[in-house]
Design a protein that fits this description.
By secondary structure, the chain is an alpha/beta fold. The chain has helices spanning about 35-45, 65-70, 95-105, 120-125, 125-130, 150-160, 185-190, 215-230, 250-260, 265-280, and strands at about 5-10, 50-55, 80-85, 110, 140-145, 165-170, 195-200, 235.
Length: about 280
């Protein structure tokens, strides 16, 4: 089967010499500059037409500078067409100034506040919902980076912000390495009932056993996500370079192609290209 044109909705670029990424301290294999030349070498293994950069968890004080740095990299990698920037939405209405600043940067299409490490008290802060409700005024999406155990509280938040387009990163991070399917499957189906949520087909192999995973290990999660969200609400993402902890860029593309081989050519085009173009307006 020929690979379709790809719009990769989830890539990272970072430079630890320029920005502080505390989480990379525990990942020496990735704790080095990974810049456009590296992305080009990876992306050239597949017919990638466009990339969407997603914020990389640098120090919050450096997030605006991260956006400006990535914008300069377009000259080196012109396929960079959009940015999902960090925004501290828990500031509530005070986040408006940050969002206004981001709106003045044309490549910014959405925001992410990484929530996977936050406890329930954080989620219940009124400021988070207030900040989320500002996003439609800027035509920004919100990427949800959460763990499977957090999906019920995600649902509560999504229900309170029906005008926001939520992009669930990495299938909601099911515990594939443990073969855990429930309650993730039930919670994902319930979340998918909300029409303002879409799901990234990304990040699954790093939730599996990185050294011994097989496509068969991933298949139930793929099938369930596609069934729950349907062809118009799923979008391909590589999660490069994090994906390289378990596979090359090329292997991830080939794996996704294999696991969606039963859907139609039109549906594959939606998954790999047109859904991301629509959602991120690129």
């Amino acid at each position: 089967m020929k690979a379709p044109v790809i719009v990769d909705s989830h890539v990272h670029l970072w430079n630890p010499g320029k920005f502080r990424y505390a989480w990379l301290d525990a990942l020496p294999a990735l704790n080095r500059p990974l810049c456009p030349a590296d992305l080009k070498a990876a992306g050239d293994s597949a017919p990638v037409q466009k990339f969407i950069f997603v914020e990389c968890g640098c120090d919050a004080s450096q997030c605006a500078a991260e956006v400006d740095w990535v914008a300069t990299l377009v000259t080196e990698e012109p396929r960079l067409k959009g940015i999902v920037a960090h925004a501290s939405l828990e500031k509530g209405l005070a986040a408006r100034a940050d969002l206004e600043s981001l709106a003045g940067r044309p490549l910014v299409k959405g925001v992410r506040r990484n929530l996977q490490a936050e406890n329930d008290d954080f989620w219940n802060r009124p400021g988070l919902l207030e900040g989320l409700k500002l996003l439609p005024g800027f035509n920004f999406t919100f990427d949800l980076c959460v763990r499977a155990s957090q999906l019920p509280i995600v649902l509560k938040l999504v229900r309170q912000a029906p005008e926001v387009t939520f992009v669930l990163d990495h299938f909601g991070k099911p515990a594939v390495r443990n073969g855990s399917f429930e309650p993730w499957a039930h919670d994902l189906r319930t979340l998918a009932e909300m029409p303002n949520v879409v799901c990234k087909i990304s990040g699954l192999i790093t939730e599996a056993d990185g050294s011994r995973w097989t496509p068969a290990d991933l298949a139930p999660y793929f099938e369930h996500a596609l069934e729950c969200f349907g062809p118009s609400r799923v979008l391909f993402g590589s999660d490069w370079p994090v994906v390289t902890l378990a596979a090359t860029y090329e292997v991830w593309v080939e794996t996704v192609m294999k696991l969606v081989d039963r859907i139609s050519e039109t549906e594959r085009k939606q998954l790999f290209q047109t859904n991301a173009e629509r959602i991120y307006r690129v």
